[in-house]
Amino acid sequence: MRRGFRPGAERKTREPPRTGTASTTPEELFQWIMTHEHHAAKSLGIGKAIAVLTSGGDAQGMNAAVRAVVRVGIYTGARVFFVHEGYQGLVDGGDNIREATWESVSMMLQLGGTVIGSARCKDFREREGRLRAAHNLVKRGITNLCVIGGDGSLTGADTFRSEWSDLLSDLQKSGKITAEEATKSSYLNIVGLVGSIDNDFCGTDMTIGTDSALHRIIEIVDAITTTAQSHQRTFVLEVMGRHCGYLALVTSLSCGADWVFIPECPPDDDWEEHLCRRLSETRNRGSRLNIIIVAEGAIDKNGKPITSEDIKNGSRMGVEAVMALLEGTPDTPACVVSLSGNQAVRLPLMECVQVTKDVTRAMDERRFDEALKLRGRSFMNNWEVYKLLAHVRPPKSKSGSHTVAVMNVGAPAAGMNAAVRSTVRIGLIQGNRMLVVHDGFEGLAKGQIEEAGWSYVGGWTGQGGSKLGTKRTLPKKSFEQISANITKFNIQGLVIIGGFEAYTGGLELMEGRKQYDELCIPFVVIPATVSNNVPGSDFSVGADTALNTICMVNVEHLVQKMKTTVKRGLVLRNEKCNENYTTDFIFNLYSEEGKGIFDSRKNVLGHMQQGGSPTPFDRNFATKMGAKAMNWMSGKIKESYRNGRIFANSPDSGCVLGMRKRALVFQPVTELKEQTDFEHRIPKEQWWLKLRPILKILAKYEIDLDTSEHAHLEHISRKRSGEANV
């Protein structure tokens, strides 16, 4: 291989091509414009300076955000400064404010806490302290500040920005800065990233640190489950959340808890009796385990705290932050970069702070219904699903019920069992007869079908793999047998949980309706695959667990090695990305070229990526997908009831339930066909490919960043009135 050779490298045109000539098309002109937009990103920060600080309590992921701010800032040509020890460092100045380099954030990504420090600062609350902080920034030419912290930290940042002009005026009058310095620093841009493990900030689906906190909690719950089942015990687990019950609520969904206490929705006055009755019912049904989750801020309807002892007795944002800072103008309001679905959005900082305070005020004034609404649609969805699964009992009578079957198709994926559990139990609550199919379409053809009751799926949420068994077999060759069994078991709806084979199988079922009327029943596909390649969904159940497994198996080993004096690098390869650049070829190339300089090792993860116990995200995601799929199914069956039988033959009676940006949506499989690359078993367009340039920038590649798509400033009220969040 020639040194310096880059496959696919192309000569870049400096002058714009002329249209109207024989050699230039409008498409070429558009490509030239786009290329130069990318180049503009590399000069966006020239002549500007950014400071980044962390404030308040530390949270996992803060260092990753700091690293992204530093490296993307440097990439754009800006100077970037660390502010050590939070606002205290901003006030004290000196060595607390130091210029960052590319190398200064190496080895920071995987560390917990915040390596640049965080401190509570009384000085910054006083105007004199903010005056000193302004002086320290002006002297270094810093006019952009990225604050990573909670609502108190972000409120302080907004106050600082609103006073900026007056602070500069006072500094100039006292002779501490010159008129030229004041002019150069005439305005201050503020962007906030929310760091809080409680997830108690309104306007974002998840704050920095929340996911790591959930992982720790679920690890503990999984660890005690075996002991609890062995001794038939009830465990009461108290988790953090003084003013927000998010951790407790999502933990309850992720582990199938029997009860949860959260501050936003206190229990009824006779909760002790209700709880005891509920635990007795579950034991009578054969359960050997009960788990109760309580948030530390849980209260009853009179505002009295509920503690674990009472219960026992009664039973991708750092990148967006830099862009928001550098694109800011004197008229741009301070904003916070938040997460909505898989989209980074910018929201006015003080709008979010105000809504967060409104939640606390509503709870203090016992307006709990309003507090729940203020938390946002995603929180409310979690609460509604929890109430259904934990507090609503299935009706004893099955009169007028429908029969729905649920099955897994394709390779196993962590979270499949959680989706099956949710589907079955929601179906039972609706009064339906629920069947489970073993071994996918093959089992459907062979009649490997049985009825599932409430206890059948007990304890499935945290289990990996597929309890039902799953195969890649497609239905087309077995239409006759499948049709016979649909009639035999009176199946009126089908929930298919799986990957690309599940989607392809759905397409075949639609095609088979032309020959077999028995196939004219509603079906829905829930994407569940580590490959995350099902058309119609940005995320699949199981993908998060696979990513976590990859990081734990491979990256953590490298981290330990890199802590020594030996420098190491990481090359990741997709199994079928190139037929020539194989894993063995790349390994042999590095081994040969690195002789005497470095050693090379290779590790093929294979089926390990399917993971064991699903992550909190996959458990919660799968549970909500199952619930939403079953609600859709019940409505579609009623809609398709004609002349005493179910007949569903419209395109919208066979759908994929997918996560599209900020919402869960049902899309007919026939409409998704045009969006599918069947040869490579992937959607033709994949949103995550846009993350690749960011990855390369953070790894110091010479590459252009596409800034044509970025978050625009929205308003929290408008965001909350849109489609239902995940």
UniProtKB/TrEMBL annotation:
GO terms for cellular component: 6-phosphofructokinase complex; membrane. Residues 50-311, 404-552, 555-632 form the Phosphofructokinase domain. The keyword Magnesium applies. One of its GO terms (biological process) is canonical glycolysis. Residues 8-17 have a biased composition (Basic and acidic residues). Pathway: Carbohydrate degradation; glycolysis; D-glyceraldehyde 3-phosphate and glycerone phosphate from D-glucose: step 3/4. Residues 1-25 are annotated as: Disordered. Its cofactor is Mg(2+). Keywords: Allosteric enzyme, ATP-binding, Cytoplasm, Glycolysis, Kinase, Magnesium, Metal-binding, Nucleotide-binding, Transferase. Gene3D superfamilies: 3.40.50.450, Phosphofructokinase domain (3.40.50.460). GO terms for molecular function: 6-phosphofructokinase activity; AMP binding; ATP binding; fructose-6-phosphate binding; identical protein binding; metal ion binding; monosaccharide binding. It catalyses: beta-D-fructose 6-phosphate + ATP = beta-D-fructose 1,6-bisphosphate + ADP + H(+). Homo- and heterotetramers. Phosphofructokinase (PFK) enzyme functions as a tetramer composed of different combinations of 3 types of subunits, called PFKM (M), PFKL (L) and PFKP (P). The composition of the PFK tetramer differs according to the tissue type it is present in. The kinetic and regulatory properties of the tetrameric enzyme are dependent on the subunit composition, hence can vary across tissues. Interacts (via C-terminus) with HK1 (via N-terminal spermatogenic cell-specific region). This is 6-phosphofructokinase type A. The gene is PFKM.
